[in-house]
Amino acid sequence: MTKVRVKVKVKVKVSELMQYVICPRLVYFRVRAQGRGYESYAHTHTQAQAHTVTAREKSMIESFILKEFAFNLHKITGCEDTAAITAIIGDIVESVPRIYREELEGLGLVLELDLIEAVKRDFIQGMNDEWLKKLMTENELTELERVHGYERERMMYSEKLNLSGSVDKLIIADEEVIPCMIKTGKSPGYGVWRSDRVQLAAYAMLIEDEFGSIVKRGFVEYIREAEFRVTQIRRSDRAEALQILKQVRRIKQGAFPDKGRNAPCENCVYSKYCDTDTRKTLLSKLLGK
Ligand code: SF4
């Protein structure tokens, strides 16, 4: 009797497409993390640093605050009272330990009152007039948000693509559905980064499957610089997102990928395993296994 092989379509998250863009091997190691001890290494690594707040952890806390700023823009835009803005900043900083509890615990951090105060002080001292002025001035995105509101971290799933993801903000402006992403890194001189275009294209395809409408544009908020950029969702971005989706599926099914061209190996928790696995793969190839 002939055996019928049922092809199981591997589920993929948009965040895994972004890991692939940084380095394809991150997808490989993160997928295998639970079963093979990689995760316990990463955990021990953060536990060992738990007693002090390192510069890297401080910058992560700052990223959480910036992200919350982006979610609270409607309170800041148009506000001219500096005392009110200081109070809003206080509220945002104080909400961070509750909203990002899982992430902070992952870092081995508990944001005690003293630390929150210190973070708040540093943050307020680090703000500059130009940045605040840009946040307080209405732009195309904040106008859309004022008129239509937005849904925070909307989770979407496409059965056709077997792809899921949650976009930071989803604006439904009458017939148009617009994805919006918050980024805490630097902005490019013009437009949006290639990886951000690919991520927006992936969200666009999820939205199209869920809402049945074509997504033509998306926004990226580079909140650290108060830069709000709109970008068209191009055919080439969609094609690249689909191509990466295919590669991520292969990796999740066991393929060991090459390193990314600009892989950030010096800060990677998997560097120890990465070389071991490379050797093992080469050896396996030589032995024909
Ligand atoms: S060590 Fe380098 S190549 Fe290996 S997973 Fe990390 S970033 Fe990628």
The biggest beta sheet is recorded as: 6 strands, mixed
The helix/strand series, from N terminus to C terminus, equals EHHHHHHHHHHEEEHEEHH
The whole-angstrom Rg is: 21 Å
User: Helical amount among residues, as a percent range?
Assistant: 55-70%
**Tertiary shape:** globular
How many H/I helices? 13
What's the CATH class of the domain at 140-245, please? Alpha Beta
What does the average pLDDT come to? Answer: 84
Beta-strand residue percentage? 5-15%
CATH architecture annotation name of the domain at 140-245:
Alpha-Beta Complex
| CATH topology-level fold name of the domain at 140-245 | Lambda Exonuclease, Chain A
Low-confidence stretches: 39-51, 282-289
Give the distinct bound molecules: iron/sulfur cluster
Task: Give the termini separation.
Answer: 29 Å
Total number of beta strands: 6
| Class based on secondary structure composition and strand pairing | alpha/beta
